[in-house]
Write a structure and sequence with these properties.
It is found in: Golgi apparatus membrane. InterPro entries: Exostosin (IPR004263), Exostosin_GT47 (IPR040911). Its main location: Golgi. Keywords: Glycosyltransferase, Golgi apparatus, Signal-anchor, Transferase, Transmembrane. The protein is built from 18 helices and 10 strands. By secondary structure, it is an alpha/beta fold. The strands form 2 sheets. It has a 5-stranded parallel β-sheet. The chain has a 5-stranded parallel β-sheet with strand order 7-6-8-9-10. The chain is 40% helix and 8% strand. It is globular.
């Protein structure tokens, strides 16, 4: 057996002197054949390259099988597999390819109970607007039940599953084109404070929306007429004239100009257009244009179904919100727990219209200590407890209509976690397309004002506690945010307008 080359070289060098001394004759060592040595070295090199190529090919095959074959079911933890692999000797382990080939194919793991498998959504941006609306209507109709959603409290909604699916589709699909026409301040000048601030905040936030506002009208599902009913009144109404026709004529001429300038109005006769108006006169500004009144989606605070202007199912009842400080719209929001609400019912405000005089006639001027009903809050009372403190300390907040059916006290009640009592016949309640008002409000007919205390005291404590809890959960849906968040008031209003448009389209089946 030959020694290794480095040991053989050292041995030869050490033995050379002694060999030269003992053998005086010619050397018996065989002569080296350089050609054979070179050939053998080349062969060894080729073998090494071939072995390396084989190793690389085996590694590539192993990697290919790893990514192409299905993963084995997770029946043991990674720690168990590692321990088992550590106990095996190198010779006992199967080769990499054999390990992958021996793995059984994995079975599809069913989704957890209560979680529906998300199906692949289509490319909405490739759909024509009408096609996308028809798709949305089918999806909403066939919405699968919502088992549990921490962001939505099911008792607040008529059908929480359909609302959730409709809201999801609105977020992914809806594009709104905002007309840039119109003279300021009537157009593009949103009022952000006062009791008519809803129309202003909606206009402001929609203009700032990168998700929904679109510059290309051909991609739009809805077209927004960005006027303010409050600014229209301040600009054109002649005080004490009692003549609203100049306001409606102005809006009529604006719509006629759009119809002559653009093709969009004439395609649907205004059915895919909408306006948002919170002043009491908002409905009357649309009466001079037949298509505007009949076809256009109107989001109105004055949602009176008895006048023949507001059409339930097409139009949207807009919540009337009082914003005192536009930079801090959520100031004073919050209330007291049920145990600290010592007042049964509270109202204070101007006495006008047909309902409020009746309310004060039966319950005003301190006739009943449990029913705190006033005109304007007297100074002797406000020094001890302010208007907002009264609402926060009351179980029920009375919301009688004034000149018109709407009242900002409804949303104020939500802000201060007080159950609203709505006294306004023919009033279509805000966002009633999706909200179940029986869960968090009491509706009393105008003729039942004399029995108001008996009606309120007849509500069981358990029922009242549930209603109060619903009011607290509902509150977030009626809040304005400088930067809109999911399910806030801006999105709730926009969703109701979107839903009205979706319901217009016809689908098969």
């Amino acid at each position: 057996m030959r020694p290794p080359p480095h040991l053989a070289a050292a041995h030869s060098a050490a033995a050379a002197p002694s060999a030269a001394g003992s053998h005086a004759g010619p050397s018996r060592r065989r002569p080296r054949h350089r050609g054979a040595t070179t050939t053998m070295s080349a062969a060894v090199t080729c073998c090494r390259f071939a072995a390396l190529a084989c190793l690389l090919a085996a590694g590539a095959a192993t990697a290919l099988l790893t990514f192409s074959l299905p993963a084995s079911p997770i029946s043991a933890s990674a720690t168990t597999r590692a321990d088992f692999a550590g106990k095996m000797s190198v010779t006992d382990r199967p080769p990499p390819m054999a390990r992958h080939l021996s793995a059984p194919p994995a079975r599809a793991t069913p989704p957890p109970l209560g979680v529906r498998r998300r199906k692949r959504e289509p490319s909405y941006w490739r759909m024509a607007p009408e096609e996308a609306l028809r798709y949305a209507k089918r999806e909403i109709r066939d919405a699968e039940p919502v088992i549990d959603d921490p962001d939505l409290y099911a008792p607040l909604f008529k059908n929480v599953s359909q609302f959730k699916r409709s809201y999801e589709l609105m977020e992914r699909i809806l594009k709104v084109y905002i007309y840039q026409d119109g003279r300021r301040p009537i157009f593009h000048t949103p009022p952000l404070s006062g009791i008519y601030a809803s129309e202003g905040w909606f206009m402001k936030l929609l203009k700032e929306s990168r998700r929904h506002a679109v510059a290309d009208p051909t991609k739009a599902h809805l077209f927004y007429l960005p006027y303010s009913s409050q600014q229209l009144r301040l600009t054109l109404y002649v005080p004490d004239s009692h003549d609203l026709r100049p306001l409606s004529v102005y809006l009529r001429n604006f719509v006629r100009g759009l119809a002559n300038k653009y093709p969009f109005w004439n395609r649907t006769r205004g059915a895919d257009h909408f306006l948002v108006a919170c002043h009491d006169w908002g409905p009357y500004t649309a009466t001079a244009h037949r298509e505007l009144r009949k076809n256009t989606i109107m989001a109105l605070c004055n949602a009176d179904s008895s006048e023949g202007i507001f059409t339930p199912g097409k139009d949207v009842s807009l919540p009337e919100t009082t914003i005192r400080t536009p930079k801090r719209p959520l100031r004073y929001v919050g209330g007291l727990p049920v145990s600290r609400r010592s007042i049964l019912a509270f109202f204070a405000g101007n006495v006008h219209g047909r309902v409020r005089p009746e309310l004060l006639k039966h319950w005003g001027d301190g006739q009943d200590a449990d029913m705190r009903v006033y005109g304007l809050l007297p100074n002797r009372v406000s020094r001890r407890m302010s208007y907002i403190q009264h609402m926060k300390n009351s179980r029920f907040c009375l919301c009688p209509m004034g000149f018109e059916v709407n009242s900002p006290r409804i949303v104020e009640a939500f802000y201060y976690e007080c159950v609203p009592v709505i006294i306004a016949d023919n009033f279509v309640l805000p966002l009633s397309e999706v909200l179940d008002w029986s869960a968090f409000a009491v509706v009393v007919a105008e003729k039942d004002i004399p029995d108001l205390k008996r009606i309120l005291e007849g509500i069981p404590l358990r029922r009242y506690v549930a209603m109060h809890g619903c009011v607290k959960r509902l509150q977030k849906h009626f809040l304005w945010h400088a930067r809109p968040i999911k399910y806030d008031l801006f999105h709730m209003i926009l969703h109701s307008i979107w839903l009205s448009r979706v319901n217009q389209v016809e689908i098969d089946g």
